[in-house]
Predict the 3D structure of the following.
Amino acid sequence: MTTLRFILGDHLSRSIATLDGLDKQHDVVLMAEVGGESTVVGFHKQKLVLIYSAMRHFAQELGAEGIRIDYVTLDADGNTQTLIGELARACQRHGATQVVVTEPGAWRVRDEMKDWSATLGVPVEIREDRRFLCSHDQFAAWAQDRNSLRMEFFYREMRRATGLLMAGPQPEGGQWNFDVDNREPIPADKLLPERERFTPDAITEAVIELVGARYPKNFGDLEPFGWAVTRTDALVALDHFIAQCLPDFGRYQDAMQSGEPFLFHAILSPYLNVGLLLPDEVCAAAERAFYDGSAPLNAVEGFIRQILGWREYVRGIYWLKMPDYAGTNALEAKRDLPWFYWSGETEMNCLAQAIGDTQRHAYAHHIQRLMITGNFALLAGISPAQLEYWYLAVYIDAFDWVELPNTHGMVAFADGGLMASKPYAASGAYINRMSDYCAPCRYKPSVKTGPDACPFNYLYWNFMLEHRAKLGANQRLSMVYRNLDRMDQARQN
Ligand SMILES: Cc1cc2nc3c(=O)[nH]c(=O)nc-3n(C[C@H](O)[C@H](O)[C@H](O)COP(=O)(O)OP(=O)(O)OC[C@H]3O[C@@H](n4cnc5c(N)ncnc54)[C@H](O)[C@@H]3O)c2cc1C
Ligand code: SF4
């Protein structure tokens, strides 16, 4: 009896359900780098390096425990470059009598898995991914019978369920949410923390060479590559964030600054998403910082809300609503994604900065994704599918379960308000208030019409006019429409 345990590229946790009950004598762990999954979209080169290098390190760590590993590299002879192809070959090699795997992070792969057992001729056990704080059943039970789903209420349930930042039945500090304290721009003289970057070892160097040779045309810079690829280094990154950045995380959470993509953000999403870190340990580390007095409540609550609230919420929506979710297009947005999303070549400085950061680091922080690249695409009516392709391709932390709802729901409002109560639309004034992008820009955020007008200004009002029939009754936009009505007709035209 040989059980083949199949570990996917984002299943790199020792506690992954696939490894439960592992018998070192008889079982084999299969890991395979498959080109088919790497070319679903043309992923950023650094993302491919992260996944392959982290997989190779994880395999090495399991091997050191005496676990039998069958590892197929991208360039191995006979690699079929598909998950099912590699599984079938491995079943043959080892005479496997059953396969164990944990559910994947993409609906497409989950759907394909339904046929695996019939294709392979052996039973395939698909286990639940327990590395999240809310199971599919828990989320479905919470969502059932609610007229509208709102992250804030879900988050409160999760606070109660986990006890995080709770003082008995009440939220710590008497409030669930300290967002009003978390909207400051960065002062010009504020010192920013040096961020922990990791020097590639021989394994990572080999993967960098492989990715450079195989995917030279993919988006983004291959080097310098400074991401952690092991759990040990990811824990160092976590400690560094908690000690150096968390105290200021809340206050400057929405701020943007030229040439500074990381600011006080965690840069932990890639590690959480591939499994090098677990969400409960990250939340616990932040909570400890509050109780030992090293970080204020507004920062710790703001940070925990991102992971316990938003991260779990978007995952819940994804699995509850897919596959129909991806096909909605409530605002009937149809325009093509402008080429400058790939080249970064635009005179709009805010977009050039956010896209440039993305090219260099495979990273841009949340407000850049939401209020710069996302906001522009929303206002300009870019097709949600094209936008989703871009977000999935360019970010190191992009996986379908988390990228899709953020892009489709939060940015494009394509789900008609299922995920967010109003579109995240803003004019140049918001970007000017929260960043230093506007001063050197060729456009002026205070100018509303004419050649020097910030494009976000006229796109914003055009968006509100164009979608009045769908958005006009939204209570949260009533002030916007009142302002619109005060504008003279000539300007509206
Ligand atoms: C259009 C768009 C696309 C996005 N695509 C992704 C994606 O593919 N993968 C991804 O992990 N995040 C995505 N996000 C959410 C968020 O922008 C990133 O999680 C965050 O920027 C990662 O950087 P950080 O670790 O420094 O996060 P921080 O700002 O420091 O936040 C801490 C952690 O909270 C979690 N988090 C925060 N916001 C969200 C959110 N909205 N959804 C899910 N988790 C969240 C992340 O795990 C993050 O590591 C997207 C947001 C937008 C607006
Ligand atoms: S003026 Fe407008 S286009 Fe230029 S950086 Fe500011 S918001 Fe962006």
The first helix runs from residue 35 to 38. The mean pLDDT is 96. The longest strand covers residues 28-32. The radius of gyration is 23 Å.
